């Protein structure tokens, strides 16, 4: 019985049709899986970071310029920046959207308690919709120092 298979030189013509179909489907499935694996990098996300200027302010009205950047340092447009109270008090929450250059200026009037010499303002970033950016790590904080 095995002698007839060994002597057969017809290659794929001599194989049962089910084996041929399984082989074709297997190769096609492997091709799709390999394409998915190499395309995973395209599905990855990039962490955003915020660079405040100035990093230290006093209590009272201040203008803080915030620059939102990606992991490679490039500016990110249309990101929503949220400034809120940390250990320093802030009346409400300040929000703004970055321009084409990735920067936005936010006005805030932080206050410190009577027994407090310093505190912080927290900064969060809401990435542009459908951009592949995320903000999972903590961002830089603005230090509020009593003069």
Automatic annotation (TrEMBL):
InterPro entries: DUF7382. Keywords: Membrane, Transmembrane, Transmembrane helix. The chain crosses the membrane at residues 15-37. Residues 43-107 form the DUF7382 domain. The keyword Transmembrane applies. This is Carboxypeptidase regulatory-like domain-containing protein. The lineage of its organism: Archaea, Methanobacteriati, Methanobacteriota, Stenosarchaea group, Halobacteria.
């Amino acid at each position: 019985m095995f002698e007839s298979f060994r002597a057969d030189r017809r290659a794929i013509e001599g194989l049962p049709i089910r084996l041929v179909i399984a082989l074709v489907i297997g190769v096609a499935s492997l091709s799709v899986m390999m394409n998915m694996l190499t395309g995973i990098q395209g599905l990855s996300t990039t962490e955003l970071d915020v660079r405040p200027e100035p990093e230290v302010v006093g209590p009272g009205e201040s203008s803080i310029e915030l620059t939102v950047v990606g992991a490679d340092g490039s500016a990110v447009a249309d990101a929503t920046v949220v400034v809120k109270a940390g250990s320093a008090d802030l009346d409400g929450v300040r929000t703004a959207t970055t321009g084409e250059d990735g920067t936005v200026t936010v006005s805030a009037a932080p206050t410190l308690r009577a027994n407090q010499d310093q505190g912080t303002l927290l900064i969060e970033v809401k990435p542009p919709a459908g951009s592949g950016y995320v903000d999972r790590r903590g961002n830089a904080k603005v230090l509020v120092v009593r003069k």
